[in-house]
Amino acid sequence: MKRQWFSVLLVGLLPGLLSACVSFAETPGERFQKVMREMANLCQSKKLIATDSRCILPKMQPADPLATEEGRFAHSIKIPNPVPADSGYKPGMTPEQYFEHLCRTEAGEFIYKTVENVEGVYQSRPRKMSTEYELHHLYALEDLYGYTDAEASRPEGRYSSPSRYKFYETPDLAHQESESRKQYLHPSYFSVPDSNAVLARYFGYDGRNQNTMRKEYASKRQSRYGYVWRGISRPHDREMGITGGEFLVLDIETNEVLAVRRGYVRDDIEKGKEIRGITWHRPCPLMDTEGTFISKVLKPARFHSSVQGDNHATK
């Protein structure tokens, strides 16, 4: 699914609230905080219902990257080319200048080692589907650059196919499909994990029919290689309307980093006009919407998904 960039401030729901012109000296962070205060005041003064976006958005908190075990693992990994603590920001830089600096000096694909004949991959840190409110907030998501609905909802379709990997594994046991999708998916998608399960494994997709993809639960990982994601957080980035993220390809058994993909995205408010909200786009490098980066590092073993019977790897 192609990523869609949403307006952060939902100004269509705020008639009359954002009529002031933007000062050229204001940063995106300052503009965002100002509108959050206006929203909060409006929520209180008009006694709006709790589910109104003008009541929800001001109460949202910044993402905590270390709130989960997977997040702590992701941020504990040392990479060969870490981003410097001093991002290179200089007082007086415009958001555009700072964004161009980060794209020029830090963003890109960095491959240190490739592996041939890889049959399966493991997703060490599953993404969760984000709400529209989170996508509309400057601080609520850890990694706005790397997030896509496809990666969060059905990543197996990006990685397990005749042109990619034989199987795909994830520790996400909580994901359950809607009953309304039973006619489109293999019955195994609606199975329930037993008490020994630690991961879900997807396999068998023929590249054409969605209902050929199967799902099983397992107590042991079969993948040696996998990936993890993490956001980049430094003092000036969000304040300047910029967010970054890293995608790390790993040897899971040794935690050796095989490759890093780092990118940034920024807002694109037209200065001098009425505030129209923050629109996240202009990524550098372009978004990897098809999940092709990992296959540059972990070269898939070729196989035929049409083989009858169980088609996943065994040891």
What does this protein look like?
This protein is an alpha/beta fold and 315 residues long. It has one domain. Helices cover 19% and strands 20% of the residues. It contains 8 helices and 11 strands. It has helices spanning 28-45, 53-56, 69-76, 95-105, 132-135, 149-153, 156-159, 293-297, and strands spanning 108-111, 115-118, 120-123, 167-170, 199-203, 214-218, 225-232, 242-251, 256-266, 281-284, 298-300. Strands 1, 3, 4, 5, 6, 7, 8, 9 and 10 form a 9-stranded mixed β-sheet that branches. The two termini are 33 Å apart.
Quick overview of this protein structure:
Helix content is 19%, strand content 20%.
Q: How many DSSP E strands?
A: 11
> How many helices in DSSP terms?
8
Radius of gyration: 22 Å
CA-to-CA gap between the ends?
Answer: 33 Å
Q: Element order, helices and strands?
A: HHHHEEEHHHEEEEEEEHE
Note the main sheet. Answer: 9 strands, mixed
> What is the count of distinct domains?
1
Mean pLDDT: 85
Notable characteristics:
315 residues; alpha/beta; 9-stranded mixed beta sheet; two-stranded parallel sheet; 8 helices; globular; disordered C terminus
Give the SSE map.
Blueprint: H1 28-45, H2 53-56, H3 69-76, H4 95-105, E1 108-111, E2 115-118, E3 120-123, H5 132-135, H6 149-153, H7 156-159, E4 167-170, E5 199-203, E6 214-218, E7 225-232, E8 242-251, E9 256-266, E10 281-284, H8 293-297, E11 298-300
Parallel strand pairs: 2-11, 3-4, 3-7
Antiparallel strand pairs: 1-9, 4-5, 5-6, 7-8, 8-9, 9-10
